[in-house]
Amino acid sequence: MAxxxxxxxxxxxxxxASADDAKGKGGKGGAVKGAQSINVRHILCEKHSKxxxxxxxxxNGTKFDEVAREFSEDxxxxxxxxxxxxxxxxxxxxxxxxxxxxxxxTGNPKYAEVKTGFGYHIIMVEGRK
Length: 129
What we know:
It is an enzyme of class 5 (isomerase). The chain is α+β, with helices and mostly antiparallel strands.
């Protein structure tokens, strides 16, 4: 696993996940304090240049799941879906970023990026409970 200090979060389009959201002030769809599991998708790229190409597609309005099928080196057939994941069940750097993200849809994703020992991830969250 990568050390926690390797996490580099960069906000995607849409409203950024803020400290207020993480403290439970976020409304419907925001980061919720105490959420124990998230329905998460990601795009994993070993090379930084490939991750940048995927980000460009997202910025141009391509759906997250379509970009995942084209660029991700993990779970590509499922549109990047990792399904429901609980706290403590993911790489710590990935988890720290993912649990702070607002929920969004593949058609209008709010995403963040992080580097782990597996490579470069672009992450979006579809649900939380």
